[in-house]
C-alpha cells in the first residue's frame, strides 16, 4: 500500500514561542480529529462516545541483531511477548474479530508487578483507569494537555494527582496549541525498557471502540554503560530531548526525594537513555514536533515536517550501517488522520517538499507569490464519508473524534478532489490512526555509495544486491504517531535558506520506519488499498451536523 495516514487537527493561527532544543509523488493522508475537539485534561473530546475499551492492529518491521548478541538483561527473561526488533499493529476493537495480530493495552503494559517506573503521555486521560494498569506503589509520570484557562503564556505545571503519580504539562507561549503526544516508557525489573508510540489517548474508548495504531519496541539494558556522545543525533538522543521539553525532570526529582531512590531513569540529561540502554536494534526514526519557534537549520531539521524530511529522506539497512538517500519524486503518498485542517496550496506543497525529500532551500528560495499559486501536489487525504460512518459499528455516535466542517469542505479553494475513502481492513469500524505510507516507483538499495545510480548497468547491480539481501532494498517508508495532517501539528516553514524558521503550535511524536517490500507496505497499512476517490455524491463525515 502506498499511502500516508494521519490524524488531522484543525489549524489555528497562533503566535508561537521561541523554543530551541539546545542539547547538545502521490500522497495519501488518513484523517482523524481529536486535537480539534473541545475538551479539558481528564475529559473526553466533544461527542467522544462513552464506551468500553478495545484494541486494533498493524504490524511492522525490525532490524539486525547487535554484534555482541543479547546482553544479560535480555537473557534473563523470556523472549515471548518481547519485541526486540519492534512491532507495529492496530489496537483490538470489541465486537470485531481481529483478522491479524492486534494490541490490547494490558498486553502492551504487561505484568504490573514487574514494572519499576513508567512515563506516559496523552492528550486526554482517564486517570483512575490508567492507574489500574500499574501497582499503586509504582512511580508514574503523566504528561498531558494543560487546562485552557485564560490567555497568553501557559507555564509548565507539576501536580501529584494520585499517590506515586505526578502529572506534568509543558510550556506554551500562547493560549493556542495542544500537548498531543501519545507515548509510554515502561521500565521493568529485568532492566528492559519498553517504548510505545501510539495514536491512542489514555482513555478506555480509544483502546476498545475505535481503531488506533501503536508501535512497540523493547530495548535491553546495557551490561556496561557507554560514554556520552555529544554529537549523537539518533533515536535515544531525540527521545531525551522530548523528555526535557515535556517537563519530566521535576517529577523524577520529586520521586527520588520522596521514597524512590532506585528509579531506573533518575534524570533527564544528555545521554541518560543512550548510555544505559542498547538501542542498536531500533530501526525506527523518531519524529517530534515541539511547540515554539525554531531557527537555523540545526534546530529546524529536528522538529516538524522538516524532521520528517531529515528522517524520511534516508532508509538504513541496519542501525549502524550506511544510509541510502532517496527522493520521492515518483512515489505514492497517502495520509490518514481524524481532523481536517484549513489547507492552502502553499502549505500542502511545503509539506510535500519535506515528505518527498526535495530541496528545502529551493523551496525557501521560491517567491511567496509563486508558492501561493502552485497547484495542489500529488496527495490523497484519507477521511471517512458520511455514508461509511453511518454504516460503521457504532454509527454516528462513534464519529465523535472525527472532525470536518462544512465551511471547510465548501470553501472556494478547499481540495475536495484530494479526498479518498477511509475504510479499515478490519471491517466497518472507524479509525483514529495517524499514518503515512510513502512508496517509491523506483526502489533504492542502501549502499556505501549513498543511493542508486542512473546507469542501467549499476541499476542491475542494485537489483542483484536486493535479490541477495531483501533488507537492502528500500521501497519507501511509513509514519505512525500523534501528528494529524495540519500545520498546527507539522509546523510552517518560513525565512530564507540562510535563516530558516519553523513555527509549530503543538507537541507531537511519531516514528518513521523503512519499508523493504510492497508486502511490508501492505502490512503497515491500516486501511484498504487501492484507495477509492469520493464520488460526486459523497460527503465527508461532519459531526457538527449529526442529529444523533
UniProtKB/TrEMBL annotation:
One of its GO terms (biological process) is DNA repair. It comes from the Eukaryota. Pfam families: Tyr-DNA_phospho. GO terms for cellular component: nucleus. The keyword DNA repair applies. Residues 442-464 are annotated as: Disordered. CDD domains: PLDc_Tdp1_1, PLDc_Tdp1_2. GO terms for molecular function: 3'-tyrosyl-DNA phosphodiesterase activity; double-stranded DNA binding; exonuclease activity; single-stranded DNA binding. Its main location: nucleus. The keyword Nucleus applies. The active site is at 180 (nucleophile), 432 (proton donor/acceptor). InterPro entries: Tdp1. It is found in: Nucleus. Substrate binds at residues 182, 434. Residues 455-464 have a biased composition (Acidic residues). Keywords: DNA damage, DNA repair, Exonuclease, Hydrolase, Nuclease, Nucleus. Transmembrane segments: none annotated. Belongs to the tyrosyl-DNA phosphodiesterase family. This is PLD phosphodiesterase domain-containing protein. It comes from Dentipellis fragilis.
